[in-house]
Design a protein that fits this description.
Layout lengths: L5 H10 L3 E8 L4 H11 L4 E7 L6 E3 L5 H7 L6 H12 L6 H7 L3 H5 L4 E2 L8 E2 L21 E2 L2 E6 L6 E4 L3 E2 L5 E3 L7 H12 L3 E7 L3 H8 L8 H9 L4 E4 L6 E3 L4 E7 L5 E3 L2 E2 L5 E2 L2 E3 L1 E9 L5 E2 L9 H20 L3 E5 L9 E6 L6 H9 L10 E6 L7 H11 L2 H4 E7 L12 E8 L21 H13 L7
Parallel strand pairs: 1-2, 3-20, 4-12, 22-23, 23-25
Antiparallel strand pairs: 2-3, 5-19, 6-9, 7-8, 7-11, 10-19, 11-14, 12-13, 14-19, 15-18, 16-17, 21-22, 24-25
The structure holds flavin mononucleotide (FMN) and manganese (II) ion (MN).
């Protein structure tokens, strides 16, 4: 059964012993970060701080603090189960767009049941604030050099100016004062694209921000879906049940009905304000930069809301587990375009856009290069700084194997290629913000068709007969504990 919001999810966690309630007063400035970080590193539970210093609303954090909790949040026991469902969905139709595929499926009734439904009364509108203020939120100052307090788990909802298509993206918001906040959508993201169209027309763009929902909805806001794909439909697919939405009080936008808080407002054309610094998921501070400004015009909430938060920083943090969910869920989509891909590992230390390890079934000359360039042309994978391609016998989730194989199998000058293109806006090493170079390492075995005519040696393995003989011998040699 899907969850009716984060409070329902927290109750489920509590039953499983995966929620710890902290009743002591704890400061949302730095203290919650330090506690949440230690608990996450220990593989510990989600945390509810009932008395964040200076604020009436509890703070909920570490909702996605382990792989198994992230799976539970998405209604499965193993994240690969979702990949299998996506795969089954895709294989029923030749590839065009994901949306096209979903539409073409025979199980129309089930799919129709995933489309968001509008309801007229919603928990997220139990209270309409008379004097809305962002300062009421127990938003965290996460790290010592942060420029202020940030809303770290927001679902930012906008609509395409011409097509009316909805987008839900997670973009952090720095609280400037009661009514304004930074809107940190990177230029490559869909929220930024929606804003560009409004800005070009000289119009204000309506923006709704939902805080808290079924964790499958929260995850969907982080998922790198194709631009035209509605995150709330995707959430409906994940939870196998439609997301209930309600129309905002003052905007023509719908928000998840089960949210804790809803911020209604707009982003004005032409307006920028300095945002940051912010201790980011790279493990470094993002330096101050100019970003658009969100203006709060109305605020609704549950009668007894809980404020959802997360912290990012040096990996691992919660976003690593959200990223692992994406890696597993989107693998079938990538394989639709690149069937030679067996597996992909985005190690958490590579913060997702720095390093991708790709395992392929190589059949023809140049195939590793084709895979790299295809990935650099695919959605947010375009930002991947280093792509390493290995042969199918290499388990990319085993870094020891990867390093051993890559080191042995490359002739660096021949097998490393550099390309230029868009890089993540958080990449502080790039020569220009958002533009730099990327590296592909082809660590596959080279073929004669690639000009490699030298003999290729075998990997060392003991013969099976000797292994069997020694299995029997170990006891006699009194080495049985080392079998
Ligand atoms: C905790 C967390 C914080 C994030 N903060 C930002 C952010 O501030 N700006 C941004 O552009 N992306 C941020 N992201 C990544 C986006 O949510 C992600 O790229 C998503 O796919 C964007 O949705 P879109 O494709 O609809 O734009 C964050 C992700 C997580 C998990
Ligand atoms: Mn999107």
């Amino acid at each position: 059964m899907p969850f009716d919001g984060i409070q329902d999810y927290a109750a489920a966690l509590e039953k499983r012993g995966e929620l710890r309630v902290v009743t002591a007063s704890v400061d949302p400035e730095l203290e919650i970060t330090e506690i949440a970080d230690r608990v996450l590193r220990a593989g510990g539970p989600a945390l509810r701080f009932d008395h964040p210093k200076g604020h009436p609303y509890p703070v909920l954090i570490n909702l996605f603090g382990t792989l198994s909790r992230t799976a539970l949040a998405l209604g499965v026991s193993d994240l690969d189960e979702i990949g299998v469902r996506v795969d089954a969905l895709l294989r029923t139709q030749p590839p065009t767009s994901l949306l096209g595929k979903i539409r073409a499926l025979p199980r129309l009734a089930e799919m129709a049941s995933w489309a968001p439904r509008t309801v007229s009364r919603a928990p997220c509108q139990e209270v309409v604030e008379g004097e809305p203020s962002l300062l009421d939120l127990p938003a965290l100052k996460c790290w010592p050099e942060d420029g202020g307090r940030f809303v770290t788990l927001p679902m930012v909802i906008t609509r395409h100016r011409e097509t009316g298509r909805r987008n839900v993206g997670m973009y952090r918001m720095q609280i400037f004062d009661r009514r304004t906040a930074g809107m940190h959508w990177h230029p490559h993201k869909v929220g930024a694209e929606h804003y560009r169209l409004y800005e070009a027309a000289g119009d204000r763009m309506p923006v709704a921000v939902a805080l808290g929902s079924d964790p499958a909805v929260i995850y969907s806001a982080t998922a790198p879906l194709p631009e035209e794909f509605d995150e709330l439909l995707f959430a409906g697919f994940l939870r196998r049940q439609a997301v209930d939405t309600v129309r905002c009080r003052t905007l023509d936008l719908e928000v998840p009905a089960d949210a804790e808080f809803v911020l209604e407002g707009y982003v004005a054309p032409g307006e920028r304000r300095q945002e940051g610094p912010f201790g980011d998921h790279t493990g470094y501070y993002s330096l101050p930069d100019d970003f658009p400004v969100f203006h709060l015009t109305a605020m609704t909430r549950r009668a007894k809301p809980i404020y959802p938060a997360t912290i990012v920083g040096r990996p691992p943090k919660e976003d690593c587990f959200l990223g692992k969910a994406t890696e597993r869920i989107f693998l079938p989509l990538i394989r639709m375009q690149l069937p030679e891909i067996v597996d992909i590992n985005l190690p958490v230390e590579g913060i997702f856009h720095n390093l991708a390890l790709v395992r392929i079934r190589k059949r023809y000359p140049g195939q590793a290069n084709k895979v790299m360039h295809a990935l650099w042309g695919m959605g947010q994978m375009m930002l991947t700084k280093i792509i390493v391609v290995v042969d199918e016998e290499v388990d990319v989730r085993n870094l020891s194997q990867v390093i051993w194989r890559v080191g042995n199998n490359i002739d660096p000058e021949r097998d490393i290629c550099f390309v230029r293109g868009p890089v993540d806006i958080l990449d502080h090493a790039a020569r220009l913000p958002g533009f730099g170079s990327k590296m592909g390492i082809d660590a596959t075995r080279k073929l004669p068709g690639e000009g490699f005519t030298r003999p290729w040696p075998d990997v060392i393995e003991m013969s099976p007969e000797v292994k069997a003989r020694v299995d029997a011998l170990m006891t006699a040699l009194r080495l049985e504990e080392m079998r």
